[in-house]
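Good day; I would like, with your permission, to put a structural problem before you. A protein sequence and the structure tokens that stand for its backbone fold form the material at issue. I would ask you to consider whether the tokens describe a fold that such a sequence might reasonably adopt. I set the record out below, with my sincere thanks for your time.
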Amino acid sequence: MEEEKGSRGERLSQFILSEIEKRGPIPFSQFMEWCLYHPEYGYYRSERAKIGRDGDYYTSPCVHPLFGGMIARQLSQMAEQMGGSTFDVVESGGGRGFLSEDILQWAKKNAPAFYQRLHYHLIETAPPFLKEQKERLAEYKKEGKILWIESEAFEKGKVQIEGCILSNELLDAFPVHRVMVDHGNLKEVYVTQENSQLKEQMGELSDPRIASYLQSMDITLQEGQRAEVNLNALDWMEKVARCLKRGFVLTIDYGYHAKELYASHRREGTLLCYTRHRTSDNPYERIGEQDITSHVNFTSLILKGEELGLRLTGLVPQYQFLIALGLLREMESLAREMSEADGFQLRLSLKHLIEPEMGMGEVFKVLIQHKGITQPQLNGLRELRSIP
């Protein structure tokens, strides 16, 4: 068999160009899906480090294990309010396994009764992440605390759980449709090619749900304004609702309510690419070698959830969620046991999780929805002024 030539990125570019040659222009959502998830050449199939200091971007669990500890504390309270003998957590898109490790570690040390009831499940489609998760979490697998679910079983509703379906920075990487208002009409961005160079062209909407998505939230874009429409997030909510018999959905990601997300000052939308901790707004370079994301529309998740029987428990900025669960108290307790220099470094790191302007505190949100439970009261959703 002849050996494939060129880098992964070059091979992916050739694949995309050949598909355009065969099919004609493709919706941007299809282009983004191939860039990130192509089974051979996609970004998430590469062995290259993606998360952390040596990767392309940081996630909150990279900052400090206390992030996972605070989530574990909230999960523990959810389990108390639900009762029963077991509490299932399903984490979708667990990345390198940091969050699951920190949750299990905190529960084992600080909440043994909760740990006894806890069964943790991971869904991961990226082979490099799956391999690292299995190595990192081997101790918990031996204890029978963790197992992996095939994504197909989850997608077809074959998994039925009572507990919590958890995701952290998952939905922002779902492929999105890009749209623009052109001469008063809503058009979709397609990717085509000219002389083997990728370029954009505008066309009719590829899916009628795009227009109804914006109409349902009373969104009117301005002339020339671009925006993203994440229909995949709505499909994901349907899968979640099918799998959750009773319990909670906890979604952590960066984004806004619809009115803010589609405000007229966001002329170019929110699409961003990440390579080596640098951002770019050009998805047509470094194909297959950079992450591509867009901000999450939390209004759409709330509305879709209500339609599916997932009631809104609350939506709060990440800083409020973490502080309400005791992050600052835990931080000071840890810092007292350290040298002055180490304590300062700890405070600096954790500040990144809760800093509203420059850090992750405000743009990151925590959405909690519930099913089969009457008016749950969760500490992570408390107003900060109500905390003693």
Summary: The longest helix spans residues 66-82. The mean pLDDT is 89.
